[in-house]
Design brief:
The chain is mostly helical. It contains 14 helices and no strands. Keywords: Membrane, Transmembrane, Transmembrane helix.
Length: about 280
């Protein structure tokens, strides 16, 4: 499996950055045409779309609240833990991509300082699922960046070679990503453009992680069983974090991610002991 991932990553071309970059430029141009490059106008032009989407998506509150947790990196990567054994190359790129996305996300939130919906609109105008977020850090959506960063690394790691399978695989990954990021609108945490821009940035971050790791393979120690104790400690930390979240919210997604992570942890310990 790791051989497939290595080959797939080696085939990637820089032209893959072109499409998301074009979309980001188009969004900026459209905002400029609407005179919406200021914070207030950015919010106002999305007000109706936000309230409409929020009202429709909030009809499924449990689904929204569970799925939106996958924007938390600890929850999402718990489902990918087993790949440390079978496809460590993917994890090497995932670490690089996650660090890049974290830097970009933190920087842009600080620069734009866009207030979240709950800080602007009356709470009786839309549905809030979970805790009401009122900070000035709406743009871009961090959950959306995380989702598409991870999914992009996954997308190209296991990209099929046959065209028809490749198309289906892309549709599945992108479709899953869009569903997950728009849960942020459903729970009342973000405006539509926040999650779209966040998704595009996440895609770019994922690609950057792959390309940087191809040139500077600093995480190759992950494939060395000698260093498995570091990974085991990290996964134990993730388990504790998930348990704490379960104590606060008994969500099925937390149970599933914890079970998956424990299975991965068991397999990694088993491999390490037999090394």
């Amino acid at each position: 499996m790791n051989t497939i991932v290595i080959k797939n990553y080696s085939r990637l071309k820089p032209t893959l950055f072109l499409l998301p970059s074009i979309f980001l430029v188009l969004i900026v141009v459209l905002l400029y045409q609407q005179d919406a490059l200021s914070v207030d106008k950015y919010i106002q032009i999305q007000k109706n779309a936000f309230i409409f989407l929020n009202s429709k998506l909030a009809l499924f509150p449990k689904t929204m609240f569970n799925l939106t947790q996958l924007g938390d990196e600890i929850v999402l990567i718990s489902f990918l833990g087993i790949f440390i054994i079978y496809a460590p190359k993917m994890w090497e790129c995932l670490i690089s991509a996650s660090l890049i996305s974290c830097i970009i996300c933190t920087s842009l939130k600080e620069i734009f300082s866009v207030p979240r919906p709950a800080a602007v609109f009356d709470h009786d105008r839309f549905v809030i699922i979970g805790k009401a977020l009122t900070g000035h850090n709406s743009l871009p959506s961090g959950h959306s960046i995380t989702v598409f960063t991870v999914l992009t690394v996954l997308l190209f790691a296991f990209m099929p070679q046959r065209l028809n399978y490749k198309i289906l695989w892309c549709i599945f990954i992108i479709g899953a990503g869009l569903i997950l990021v728009f849960t942020r609108v459903g729970v009342g945490a973000h405006y539509p453009l926040d999650v779209i821009i966040g998704g595009l940035i996440g895609y770019i971050s994922g690609l950057l992680g792959v390309f940087i790791n191809e040139k500077y393979p600093i995480w190759t120690w992950i494939n060395n069983k000698r260093y498995y104790p570091i990974i085991i400690l990290f996964f134990l930390f993730c388990c504790i974090s998930l348990v704490n979240r379960l104590l606060d919210d008994h969500l099925i997604i937390f149970y599933l991610s914890l079970i998956t992570l424990v299975i991965s942890l068991y397999r990694i310990i088993n491999v390490y002991v037999k090394k």
